[in-house]
Design goal:
7-stranded mixed beta sheet, 554 residues, single chain, 6-stranded parallel beta sheet, alpha/beta
Length: 554
């Protein structure tokens, strides 16, 4: 249709052809809501329901470690035929959002609908005609359902029309894709398709001069061309008639001029129209208002926000609100302006049970303190943690986030590699929590790189463990615990289990190549504990060993 108007009516040349459109459509790949599509090894796409019109979707795109949400047009308020937009907390680097109504907060939808119906009814009762300019997809269906329901409830006989063509074609797609509508429409679809209108009939241009009241939904919505403009020129001089503008009008269009209060409007260089018609501006736009935009940003939790598709003054005000409430950078570039945004890299890491439990306990304590002070404790949606991050090997092994107590930090030496010329004496520091082998040990084992070793202390209650194991006060509890662990490991583990004793008669259990379990010497001020250590390469085996130790200690 756009090509037909531009080429055939306006006479422009060098435009794309119908064949170009067909060739382009052959490359279109349908995308279901919430379906993840990998375009190549790095580019990931996912669609989310936008609620603006039938088929409208927001797109989440990730390439490597950087991600963007592009909203397009969306609506955060459910209406009579579509649901509200929604997106997961995807935490993208950038959200690019429209701001058509960036400073507007709409009143109640129910109040707007009641006001709309009362104005239409009052006009037709006095014998007037009602012109409702709207775009073919979205608002036309919304307002048609509203009028259809009201006409049926009130038993009105006044004719209602919608301009044929694109709107009629759009209604066929609404009937076909009923699953994209809201729950109420889906439920009523079992009895009757709500888009099979009983009271609303196709428009014929010969009806424009018919006497008596009528209601017409006509495209386009800004009165700049088409049926809506042609009918406006005919009906505008009569003060009995009414013009209801339900959507946004771009500056310079006839719709914008009428809404500004002009009583004489220049349609073109040859045509002037006296505007005696009753003009009403009732916003039924399917764009998000200021509250809706803020809610979408809250849902997605982006690091940066870019505002587009709005007026500069409105975007400037909304920018300050976003930065004040969410504390993230916000931009509103001009058309054609290049915007460069620095991004930080996310690191996915496995958190140790000990770190999670301690962090969770601290957060619960903080909530209890807030409640004790009479403050409201919000549900836990984020958990602050403070730990030691050990990066992975760049392959399948993920980084680990561990509690500092899982390392014996006082024993962390300088890393020394097998090369005799390697720097020593503090020139090369080990990662937090790492224990490096000596050069001699490295040479003996012919290992090509430094070995990273973890250690953790498992503190236990002597009296409780002794009761569980049926031991009296004279028994060697540490020896009994290690013997029980050794026996279970021999049964449950496929790895070789070895017991050894040191010169000081201390006992150590060795599993696999690196896992070691020993009783930690205690004094009067410290609790009894087992010391467990393992190499990075045998992390999974160490996890199995720790499970068995927990079974023994209870």
């Amino acid at each position: 249709d756009y090509r037909k108007i531009t080429v055939e009516r306006k006479g422009e040349t060098g435009f794309f052809t119908s064949q170009h459109i067909k060739d382009c459509m052959k490359k279109v790949v349908p995308l279901h809501l919430h379906e993840t599509v990998w375009v190549d090894d790095e580019l990931e796409l996912r669609a989310y329901y936008a609620g603006h019109v039938l088929g409208a979707a927001m797109v989440y795109a990730r390439c490597g470690n950087e991600s963007v949400v592009y909203t397009g047009d969306y609506n955060m308020t459910p209406d009579r035929h579509l649901g509200a937009a929604w997106i997961e907390k995807v935490r993208p680097d950038v959200v690019i959002t429209e701001t058509t109504y960036g400073t507007t907060i709409r009143d109640s939808k129910r109040a707007r609908e009641r006001d709309f119906l009362e104005k239409v009814h009052s006009c037709v009762l006095r014998g007037g005609k009602v012109l409702i300019p709207c775009f073919a997809l979205g608002r036309a269906q919304e307002l048609c359902i509203l009028i259809e329901t009201y006409w049926e409830r009130m038993g009105l006989k006044v004719p209602v029309y919608f301009s044929a063509g694109l709107t009629e074609k759009a209604n066929r797609y609404y009937k076909l894709f009923i699953n994209w509508t809201n729950q109420k429409i889906k439920e009523s679809f079992v009895d009757r398709n709500p888009f099979d209108f009983k009271y609303i009939k196709p428009w014929n241009r010969d009806y424009v001069d018919l006497p008596g009241p009528m209601v017409l939904f006509a495209t386009p919505g800004m009165l700049h061309i088409g049926t809506s403009l042609e009918v406006f020129k005919k009906w505008a001089p009569d003060e009995r008639n009414m013009l209801i503008m339900p959507g946004y009008c771009v500056a310079g269009t006839v719709g914008a001029k009428v809404l500004s209060g002009m009583k004489v409007v220049d349609i073109d260089q040859y045509t002037q129209v006296n505007v005696n018609i009753d003009v009403q501006n009732l916003s039924f736009s399917a764009h998000a208002d200021a509250k809706g935009i803020m809610e979408l940003i809250r849902q997605a939790s982006p690091r940066n926000v870019v505002l587009v598709h709005g007026e500069k003054s409105r975007m400037t005000y909304l920018k300050s609100k976003i930065m004040g409430e969410f504390g993230c950078p916000c931009y509103h570039p001009a058309n054609g302006e290049l915007l460069e945004i620095e991004t930080s890299q996310d690191i996915k890491a496995l958190m140790s049970d000990q770190l999670f439990q301690e962090s969770w306990a601290k957060e619960q304590q903080r909530r209890q303190e807030l409640q004790a002070d009479g403050q409201v404790a919000e549900p836990i949606t984020q958990l602050p943690v403070r730990g030691v991050l050990l990066l992975g090997d760049g392959g399948k092994r993920l980084p680990r986030l561990l509690d500092p107590s899982e390392f014996d930090l006082d024993q962390v030496p300088v890393v020394s590699g097998p090369n005799a010329n390697a720097p020593t004496g503090g020139d090369q520091q080990a990662p937090a929590g790492a224990i490096a082998e000596s050069p001699a040990a490295m040479n003996e084992s012919d290992t090509a790189s430094d070995t990273v070793v973890f250690s953790t202390r498992k503190v236990f209650d002597e009296a409780a463990v002794a009761r569980r194991m049926g031991l009296d006060a004279s028994a060697d509890l540490s020896h009994a615990i290690l013997a029980a662990i050794s026996e279970l490991l021999t049964i449950d583990s496929a790895q070789q289990v070895r017991d050894s004793k040191g010169a000081d008669r201390s006992q150590t259990i060795e599993v696999g190549n690196s896992v070691k379990i020993s009783a930690q010497p205690t004094d009067n001020d410290s609790l009894p504990a087992l010391l467990v250590s393992w190499a990075w390469e045998e992390e999974e085996l160490a996890t199995q060993v720790l499970v068995i130790i927990n079974r023994v200690l209870g």
